[in-house]
Amino acid sequence: METATAHVTHHDHVHGHEEHHHEEETFLTKYVFSQDHKMISKQFVITGIFWGIVGGLLSILFRLQLGWPNETFPFLETFLGKWAEGGKISQEFYYALVTMHGTILVFFVLTGGLSGTFANLLIPYQVGVRDMASPFINMLSYWFFLSAGIVMFFSFFIQTGPASGGWTAYPPINGLRDTAVNLGSGLGFDLWILGMTLFIVSSLLGGLNYIATILNMRTKGMSMFRMPLTIWAILFTAVIGVLSFPALLAGCVLLEFDRLLDTSFYLNNIIINGNLLGYKGGSPILFQHLFWFLGHPEVYIIILPAMGLVSEVLATQSRKPIFGYKAMVFSILAILVLSFIVWAHHMFVTGLNPNLGAVFTFFTLLIAIPSAIKVFNWIGTIWKGKVRLVTPALFAIGFVSMFITGGLTGIILGNSAIDIQLHDTMFVVAHFHIVMGVSAFFGMFAGVYHWFPRLYGRYMNETLGQIHFYITLLGAYAIFFPMHFMTGLPRRYYTYANFETFNNFNFLAEFISIAAIIVFLGQLLFVINFFYSIFKGRKVLAEKTVDGYDYANPWGTTTLEWSAPIERLHGNWPGDIPTVHRWPYDYSVNGREYIPQTEPLKPGEVSHD
Amino acid sequence: MIAFLIFATVVLLFVVLVLIARASELTADLKSGKVDYTNQSKWNGYFLLISLVVMFVGSAISFKVLAPVMIPKAASIHGVNTDYLFNLTMLIIGVVFVLTQIALFWFAYRYNESHGHEAYFYPHNNTLEIIWTVIPSVVLVVLITMGMYEWMRIFNPDNRDKNMMVVEATGKQFNWMLRYSGKDGKFGERIIDQAHVSPTNELGINWEDAKSHDDFMSDKLYLVKNKPVLMKLGAQDVLHSFFLPHFRVKMDCVPGIPTEFYFVPTMTTVEMQDYLKTQPWWQTINPESGQPRWQTFKYELACAELCGKSHYGMQRDVVVVEQKEYDEWLAKQTPMYAPATIEEPKAEAAKGDSVKPTAMLEKK
Fold first, then answer.
1. A298 FRET partner, CA 20 to 30 A, in A202, A448, B39, B284?
2. pLDDT for B306-328, tens place per residue?
3. What's the pTM?
4. A4-17+32-594 domain in CATH 3.40.50.300?
5. CA–CA min distance A34, chain B (Å)
């Protein structure tokens, strides 16, 4: 398997060290319009944290309504004004909160924040390249992401409020630009579409760049099967994004046509208060197909990078190779393929042809197989390892725990016959929050705690990190585990008081709200820790110094990121880019704790790739 | 004041936490170079085990407290089957849940570095991979097959009883319009065009069609025990979803596209109350009504697709009765034909051009 020579990067030896130190850097080019992947990664993570706080806060607001539907909170009126008159969140604003909570967390935190941060940080550092294929496009990707966020944020401050027809943007409620039908479907939804369009542009620019860099620019010796699983996951994530986001964009453009130009792509025979509107021949279901053609792959866009990070963290912190490396790669590939042919399981009860429903049930449940393989391999990785239970490892273990719990209920929901009752109920809310919300957050936290030293040259505080972990693990279970018992309670209800049937769970709703508030406060520990550690965290100390550059390897990783100096140089390596000689998981082999990928094979030694 | 105190306490708590955390970090700093995490690993090993126990105890409490409160057993033929499938799948995944969580947390505890062992280089084992691919596959194939069989049985039109009753439900912001076909058992024709749809005739019923003359609207959904019913579903303005939680029935209502759902109710409202009377939780007193819970039990119709600000309010009572009682109820209903025809002459001008609230910028 020694085909190392086939992969020579485009620019290594020629432009190397010198060039990168003669660049003039001003404050603007270094911190703001930076084209350096590490700075862009920092920009993504900090923007992501901002959106995480906003998205979390929105959920706390609507949890106040759900937990205490009969009470008023005067301070809400102070902050929200007309949206919470008398201290009670209005119906309109409740639905805006629900909608924006979903939009922000799905797209701005768990897609932009997660992929943006770690693709930018890890691709160049782990495949051995000085920067992305196009640093400029990479910079654009961030600025489109930021603009998308600004547009979304702006919509909170307009007269009619932000979009309130659900993060799934279904027409006709979002297809009629009529605030009498739905307050948020006026300007608020236009801004939603604009924001999403900018976001999709950002995502595509980023994704193409990630793919180009990974496929074309790997350092010498870095064959595909010598890439760490983080890179595999990011590669497949980018492929999914590039193939599926355009469908959403097309869907959204047509939706805006319906809204502004009176076309009828998604509208047919709409009757408002007994007045028949002029729309003819469109289908609201068409939009759902377009939306979920992205929407389902989107959950894998969220979870795959987290899986990659967790695989890497678990192997490193267990001092043991990831169990079944190739099985892991092929299972992500299987998930990639399957993710494109399961979207209609979100639409089992839309009146879909039942035969189609059966087909989608089949493919949906198939996804459980590669997912199961991954779970068993993670558990196999810890087994007989020498696990260093530091914060990143704890979060990686938490990820696996959450992914198991949430994934298993997917087997119930994916089965169309059972889904009839569960569709659009709190059971679904519990399922997807655990499997793609909380899990992805755990993966992201594992990644941030693990690679924070690489990003800032300092460690995050372990004690705070561990407190953060236990609050989040037990708190998230406290929120979402009991929610499964609200089987049959419709989601997106402002209150259940109108129904004899649904009104029995108020004590549980209150319990969940209290847990949610505690977990949210727990996340502030992470935020404090993050910003505190940037400036005051324990420094990564030099283990050796070569040519005036300090080197360290805080976690003892085999991968390339710590073959670069502690200082974050523009261009990453002061000299030549290192050459790779072996697979990335040589932990606890040949009597050594770990063997870096840069170390040549001994005579007679066989690389595991 | 109380809000301020809570706020101050939280802030203080954070400060204390940060100070403690910082202190612990400083002691680690003195050692310089590589930090020894062994002690932390040891404690976290214990904490993980405790977390696992807390999780399992919490799950057990959830089952004990919440399971009796859940929506009671299915009151339709297919609902009994899908509930069985739900419970069977729950049982299987419950076992997998317990085993995998124990393995995960136990291994994290057992193999943490504080035990002073070395890691075992064990990169892969194809036999194991095949085992844990094949076993889930087999289980899933069984579940898929059972699920698909039930799914096709629910939706296959050939399975329908010729003597079924048909009820039409149309969702609009924010209530349900329930139309019955009256004594002749046939619905009057609906024509969706400007000439027929109006504020007084939202459904666009063609009054010239004699079949419409005995159709009536009901504010309750009356069904007959053991009598198959086909719900003809539709929506006026935006998406709604016709949801009968007790009958395990849900189907979206889509403007411009008809949908339907066929099912057989198996228990009258009274029978369900009698059943619940035997359930301990349902015997408890509801503090709001002051009555035992089983007494105020009723079947209900809800909306399950976000349809606007009062989405949560689209409630209708559902009543299941014996045929005899249904016939009595039917005899008492008044057709809607008479009042509608009085207002029949409509102003031509009002319906001439298509009224469409388009491109209205933020008009309240």
1. A448
2. 999 999 999 999 999 999 999 99
3. 0.93
4. no
5. 32
